[in-house]
């Protein structure tokens, strides 16, 4: 491994870097090296303050955060900013919450770079589902019981209904990890039950996974809507649904934990 801190990013190159779920200790060593060898970082609202603290003083930090309802910069503007910075000869990091390749609009940024002839690479990160499972001390897959893990987003455009393949999602042998699903939790619950999933299927909501402010709610599918509205705070939250979720352990700090109803 090279000891040259500047060897990681070439001038005029872009890296899409996964910042992980928030805990700076869950940043990869590669991501940290990239942050130490770049000129400018464009980061999301989801990137935790602990991660931003690791960025050296001389690096220019540009907040291009998007949180639902508070779009500060649209995707095209972000694409253009990244490309422009690279073409100006900067070593560019685009720092994204979790893993850049999971619900992270990475394709737009990859394509914008390629179209401009800018070299672009990805450094993966720990995704929210993995952090949520860790906070619950459970496995997302379960031999014989949960053979499939589905990452799905339940984010609907304003005023539009959720357009998901509910029949396929309502699989009793799968674990669903639902991103951006807090607002749609009641609809998710109703649709999955309408398509055959039992009301007592275990569910969990994990807010601020991996952070000291993490809050964990466990319960059952027929109560998911109530759980989501009870889950105060506007931190990012992940929904987990399926038999594997019923194995949630007790290692979590009990102060942040709420059990909505034990399973029958
Ligand atoms: N690329 C990210 C996901 C971006 S979509 C990743 O791989 O994790 C944003 C959604 O991710 C949020 O609405 C929430 O559902 C989830 N999320 C991100 N960070 C989270 C966290 N620390 N705790 C719980 N959910 C989180």
UniProtKB/TrEMBL annotation:
Pfam families xref list: TP_methylase
InterPro entries: 4pyrrol_Mease, 4pyrrol_Methylase_sf, 4pyrrole_Mease_sub1, 4pyrrole_Mease_sub2, CobA/CysG_C, Siro_Cobalamin_biosynth
All copies of domain Tetrapyrrole methylase, residue ranges: 14-222
Coiled coil: none
One GO BP: siroheme biosynthetic process
GO molecular function, one term: uroporphyrin-III C-methyltransferase activity
Protein name: uroporphyrinogen-III C-methyltransferase
Recorded superkingdom: Bacteria
CDD domains: SUMT
Pathways per UniProt: Porphyrin-containing compound metabolism; siroheme biosynthesis; precorrin-2 from uroporphyrinogen III: step 1/1
Natural source organism: Croceicoccus mobilis
């Amino acid at each position: 491994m090279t000891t040259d801190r500047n060897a990681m990013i070439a001038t005029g190159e872009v890296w899409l870097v996964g910042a992980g779920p928030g805990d700076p200790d869950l940043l990869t060593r590669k991501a940290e090296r990239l942050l130490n060898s770049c000129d400018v970082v464009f980061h999301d609202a989801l990137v935790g303050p602990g991660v931003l603290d690791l960025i050296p003083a001389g690096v220019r930090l540009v907040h291009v955060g998007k949180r639902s309802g508070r779009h500060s910069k649209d995707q095209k503007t972000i694409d253009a900013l990244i490309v422009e910075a690279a073409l100006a000869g900067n070593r560019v990091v685009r720092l994204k919450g979790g893993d850049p390749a999971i619900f992270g609009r990475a394709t737009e940024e990859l394509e914008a770079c390629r179209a401009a002839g800018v070299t672009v690479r990805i450094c993966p990160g720990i995704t929210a589902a993995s952090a949520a499972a860790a906070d619950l001390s459970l496995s997302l897959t379960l031999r014989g019981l949960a053979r499939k893990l589905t990452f799905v987003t339940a984010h609907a455009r304003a005023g539009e209904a959720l357009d998901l393949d509910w029949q396929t999602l309502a699989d009793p042998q799968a674990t669903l990890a639902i991103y951006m699903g807090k607002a749609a939790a009641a609809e998710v619950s109703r649709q999955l039950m309408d398509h055959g999933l039992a009301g007592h299927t275990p569910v969990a909501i994990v807010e601020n996974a991996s952070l000291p402010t993490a809050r964990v709610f466990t319960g059952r599918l027929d109560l998911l809507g109530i759980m989501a509205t009870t889950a105060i705070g506007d931190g990012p939250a992940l929904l987990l649904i399926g038999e594997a979720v019923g194995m949630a352990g007790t290692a979590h700090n009990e102060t942040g934990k709420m059990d909505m109803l034990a399973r029958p």
